[in-house]
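Entry 14. Structure prediction run on the chain below.
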Amino acid sequence: MSMIAFISLSMLALARSGDSHLAQNLVPNPHFAIGDSVPDGWTSIYTAKGKLVAGRDTKIFVHPPASLSLTGTTDDADGNVSAELPDVSGKTLTIDGSVRCGGGVTAAQIALFLQDESYKQLEYRPLVDRFGFKDGVWTQFHVTAEVPANAKHARLILLEGGKGTVWLGEISVTDAGAETKRATATLTPPTVPPTVRTAQSPRLTSIGAIAPDVLDILIQDGRTTPSSMTVYAPKPGDERLPKGHQQILKRNGQEIGWLIGARHDHLVSYEQLVGDPLQPEYAGYLGTYRVSSPDDLDYQGGKQATALFRKSKPNDWEIPRQRFAWEHRIYLKLPSPLKEGKTYTVDFGKLNVQPGTSTFVFRPAAQASEAIHVSQVGYRPDDPFKRAYLSCWRGTGGGQEYDRPMTFRIVDASTGATALSGPVRLGKSASEPEHMVREENFVRADVYWMDFTRLTKPGTYRVVVDGVGCSYPFPIAADVWDQAFKVQMRGLVNERAGIALKPPYADFVRPPDEMPNEGQQITESTSSVLNGQEAWTALVKGDTGQPVKGAYGGYHDAGDWNPRRATHLKVTMAHLEMLDIFPDHFAKMRLGLPDSSNLPDVLQEALWEIDLFRRLQKPDGGVPFGLETDGDPEDGDVSWLTTMHLYEFAPDCYSSWTYASAAARAARIMSRYDAAKSRGYAASAVKAMEWGEAHMAEERPKLTWEMTDARNLAAVEIYWLTHDPKWHEVFLQDTLLKTSRPYLFQYGKAVQRDAAFVYARLPQGLGEATYKQNAVDGLEIMAKKCLEYATGNAFNLTNCDKGRPLGFAFYTEADATDLCRAHFFTHKSEYLAGIVTACQFATGANPSNLVYTTGLGANPIQHPLLLDSRRTGQPAPKGLTVFGPIDYVQFHDDGTIWPMKFFLNQQCIPPSNQWPIPEAYFDIYLYPIINEFTVDTWAGNLYAWGYLAARK
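Output returned:
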């Protein structure tokens, strides 16, 4: 993963200070989503006597995922747990929460502990005590407290006495005098004056429905104007403020951008957020909205909704000022269902949204609904699995429930004609746990399934649920998976280093980069990857000063460019394997590459990556892990003007084996098209393999199980290439195939699925029949694990490993390689259906209706973390598949979820740590762990999409 994911201290300072027009919840970790045995921020525990234990309870809570518990384990227990409240001096606080008691609790209390600047106690102020609590029942409380101006330190206290437990289920402490975006709808008219509606007011994006009696109003609040990069033209009075290798330009008293490059002669301007914010007091007031109709008698004269629910999340982030553009959804529970064909007008009253009223005719077959999810890539006519989903989590309103029975229709997107209809059936209820890394319902809403596999007629369609709405359009066509494969391959072209990018073969413009220039040096280091992939200190310390020749090519690792690594060859191996098993299909596929050759385009793209490491290969055969700078890119930097020093790792066994696998596979495939050229790659591959063998003894103490697996794969690839039996003997040293029905995925010990597939395909005369059968049996075991996993979750995601964390491309990379390989040998229809199943979530069949690859489908993500495009004001190019949602409960350190912890928890509605994990994707650019990517994580998509395109 790119080190840009690990936040700098300066960013943390900005995050804590915030530059927002929104009031914040002053309690750290208010819903106890973050932490292990004890919630983060609540680790200050005081025991007056007896024994007390504070904890994070994931079984008893008001709202998932957890509550704070304080348990006395002795009869005389007496003490408390507390959290610090920042900057509350002189403020009037509103404190809301829920508390519960159990066991023999004799005392329980919520209190404020106030101290002056020198930490002298000013006051211990009880807010709520045991008198109002009932055992086993959650009791809500709402209190206000004025904090004196001399109280410079404040703590919120949960006190417990006796043998028993007190739980704090949720807590909110806000400044009552500040503007706030609280989640609950209000019935009391706002007392603040309305904001004047102007051309800068938030815009109504759409009105639809998620149920016959629930309107979904989508409002866009603000937009970010992008940076631009220009040659710096000095003006009188300009100030230059040093910052690292860069300078900040201050003009007319305002910081306006970064001066970058060796001579600081290029200006990257700051982004700008424009537009007025949505006025929260009126957005959350039920009386703001009124629905009327001239032809529906139930709404003549106008009616008010009976309930209002909300969810708001940002969809862009102004850098560096840390302000957001917002997407707001207002759900209005109506007194009567909408009627198809009738006209309705929504009046927004005094809310500062433009226009102030909106009229629409309710036609579900033509109005997209957030609640209907389907793959926007579409399907081949003969795909044996086609499924859409119905679900909606309404934010503050929880999961939408639907009356049953229901039916769905598949309609022609242009004519509206019904092509197929069927029943809507409950797939997984919100109360039913999903069997994933944890036994928990991650969607938090009922999810319904709509199967339409029997639809095979080519066309463009929508899924319609009458009374609700329709899906995004999707095609049924013979080439849908070809198109998806080509888009993902375009992403690799857009990540090329050392070449000028421009149309028509690239989707944005960028000069050649990552080559020695006037500001950047590339030199050898004596430090290898065995000292750590990002051991910058060791790289710098081992610098020899020796220039590196041929250090161009390969791929940028991610949204930045500092590493180019041998692990990227994983994606190269994937599309090479497609060409290998389907040569007729992929040999004639045109990708519009800038290179000209007699080789197939898929092979040419593989060589762009392989050739970097072939150029870096040392005369004795050793291959380094790659290239790395002495730190992450700085603010404002772009790849072709960076001045950061670039170091080449020293060769090592692992990298040499990894390269040997890819070069051997490329050489074997290349022999079909250019025998002479093939021999050069074959010699390079063998030389790398032999170097690894020669140095294995000295490096063995540092070799991990993954590196042993790399050797195992390289041995079988070299064996197939050379037919030399000595490499078969090397392969047999560590293979799992000597066991009947082997389990090929033993994380932490051996994961040898790739090597097993190669071995099973060895031509007649190579390998042993028993081991080949064991390989096929092992691949089938993996495929069956994938199918079993898919039945245990609402959106049928596949995975062979139930323990895999939810994140790091879990949701966005199709985990179907095992299914493809099992189908290749067995041709069983259930495996082919499983491959299609695995591809659905990432291509739009998810709660957000997002395609997680840029340029693909009707509703792709817009703001992946790609520094070069963002800093030059260019839209993100095609083919970038991001990491996607992450399990913020399991991964909650500052370097992973800092945007959530320091911004989104306080500003989203509901707080971001209450969002369902599959829906907690925030398309805001600078949230690295979800918005960034690494090219090697695209291997699964290329494999699955390529297999579905080419299979017979």
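Residues 113 and 680 are 75 Å apart (CA to CA).
Filed with the rest of this week's runs.
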